[in-house]
Amino acid sequence: MLGPMRRAAFFDLTHLARPADEEPALEQALARHRAEGDLVVLVMEAHQRPPRPLAAEELLVRLSPYATGELEKCAAVIDAMARLCIDPASCFGYGDWCAGTGLLSVVGNPRVLTCGGCPADSLELAQKRGWPVVMSASAV
After folding, report:
1. Is the predicted pLDDT of residue 111 greater than 50, yes or no?
2. What is the predicted pLDDT for the residue at 76?
3. Within 13 A of 38's CA, how many CA atoms are on the CB side?
């Protein structure tokens, strides 16, 4: 008999220039997924340090130091889902347009984080794709 379907939430932290006032939206999403028992996966560049020590139900996916774009990010997330035996349809993804939409395009439940430096039409593009937008305090 199969156990209950495990969910995971992938957070694209490769955008280093996220303003501090936009962090609460990210932290709320992290806290919500932790509280729901989801596996939290932080996606970071090879040279980045995690923002804090990882919790027990968190994993870190580091991109190759030779990664040059969204394809490598997509491949890393797909590889992580395969290794964890998690159905992409049960996964959430959080990222902004500045970091790219690769991670968002390979999970079943993408969420766009607003970013002060992102293109003005990014909210419209998210809506066209049917991707919910997580608004930060600076974007409200």
Report:
1. yes
2. 92
3. 21
pTM: 0.85
pLDDT over 70 (residue 78) = yes
Query: For residue 2, what pLDDT is reported?
Result: 44
Between CA 10 and CA 81 the distance in angstroms is 10
